[in-house]
Amino acid sequence: MELGLLYSGGKDSTLAALILDDFYDITLVTAHFGVTDDWKHARDTAEATGFDFEAVELDREVADEAVERMVEDGYPRNGIQHVHLHALEAVAAMGFNAIADGTRRDDRVPTVSRAQAQSLEDRHGIDYIVPLSGFGRGAVDRLVAATLDVESGPSDEIRKADYEAELRTLLADGHGDETIADVFPAHEQTYVTGFTGER
């Protein structure tokens, strides 16, 4: 069965791919808005880890709506949630038997409710799988340390192919650079460069 995994090139989505690899023919799918070429980081990670890769361009108006929501809220949660649900819809429409993402049990954003997951499955005739839903951050970090080579650093320095990079760019373009610090809390990002040993 073919599975499209919503992919950023970070540790969570890469670990999700490894967990599902024995059961599905996986294509890592990076969703972007065409604002930057940061999606190419995910393509490079897919190549380094041996997975098939596709990029899908999302509707730009979804990004614009997300940015305005973040500015209005003063934090990124609802904007990122809006983009994530749109990205799952886009991947579901690509013709896979199943779709997945790298969300963990303790993620605050993005999340997919049971009702949203069932709706996605029913409308697209697919399975929605969340392989890390039983894993907390500590468990993910230990599995990643044993398996993957990872670069990490402040979110404004590590460039991977998640929505945040493009949303930051649009936020700065529309509301000024200073708004980025007002909306996005400082946090660490990861970028997978390969495996710690042979796979």
Question: Could you outline the blueprint of secondary structure elements for this entry?
Answer:
Layout (H helix, E strand, L loop, with lengths): L1 E5 L4 H10 L4 E8 L6 H11 L2 E6 L2 H14 L3 H16 L5 E3 L13 H11 L2 E3 L7 H11 E7 L8 H13 L2 H6 L4 E8 L4
Parallel strand pairs: 1-2, 1-4, 2-3, 4-5
Antiparallel strand pairs: 6-7
Helix pairs in contact: 3-4, 3-7
Any idea what the shape is?
globular
Secondary-structure content class: alpha/beta
Q: How do the strands line up in the largest sheet?
A: 3-2-1-4-5
Name the CATH superfamily assignment: HUPs
- The value of Rg in angstroms is 16 Å
In CATH, the topology is named Rossmann fold
Number of E strands: 7
Major sheet: 5 strands, parallel
The CATH class is Alpha Beta
Low-confidence stretches: none
Structure explained in plain terms:
This protein has about 200 residues and is of the alpha/beta class. The protein has a single domain, classed as HUPs (Rossmann fold, 3-Layer(aba) Sandwich), CATH 3.40.50. About 45% of the residues lie in helices and about 20% in strands. The protein has helices at about 10-20, 40-50, 60-75, 75-90, 115-125, 135-145, 165-175, 180-185; strands at about 1-5, 25-30, 50-55, 100, 125-130, 150-155, 190-195. Strands 3-2-1-4-5 form a five-stranded parallel beta sheet, sandwiched between helices. It has a two-stranded antiparallel ribbon with strand order 6-7. Strand 4, helix 5 and strand 5 form a beta-alpha-beta unit. Helix 3 packs antiparallel against helix 4. About 35% of the residues are buried.
